[in-house]
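Continuing the series of single-chain predictions for the mutant panel. This is the parent chain; the variants come on the following pages.
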Amino acid sequence: MPTIGVFALQGDVREHVRSLEEAGARAVPVRRPAELEAVDGLVIPGGESTTMWKLAETFDLLEPLRMRVKSGMPAYGSCAGMIMLADRIEGGIEGQQTVGGIDMTVRRNAFGRQIDSFEADIDFAGRGSVRAVFIRAPWVESVGPEVEVLALAEPGDRIVAVRQGPLLATSFHPELTPDAGVHPYFVEMVREL
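Parent structure:
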């Protein structure tokens, strides 16, 4: 049983822990570098990407996160977590930093404001339909040649899920639905790597 951490300084921590456990992993909160070192993979949840970046710096987690991702630790980012795993951001605040790792450009709040939040059924990674909740969600503007596009959503067939090696990212919040598509996929990734 893999041990998967959930970045627990801000965001949908409890919901991801539940979804990971239902998918067959042992899930633990990660707030300190020592806790990060003890996990086989990590989920960076939805929340607010600028707050996550600032808290990661405050708790001395940003550089350890970068090092673990660079060394091949599997990581999954949903919504704000997608932004945190992006190499490039459009619409970020001046100086905003990320963990990086996925060769993509992500646009913050691309689907609109909180009032524009929506749900949709999307085809995920050829595994069938999953229910996706989009809340002030980003989308992927562009990807590099090593990035696999896993899902698109309307309007305009926007890229909303990607994978690059051991890194997975979605614009949407699978932890907010009973759908069991994305978390089992990530747990399989951790087991394989």
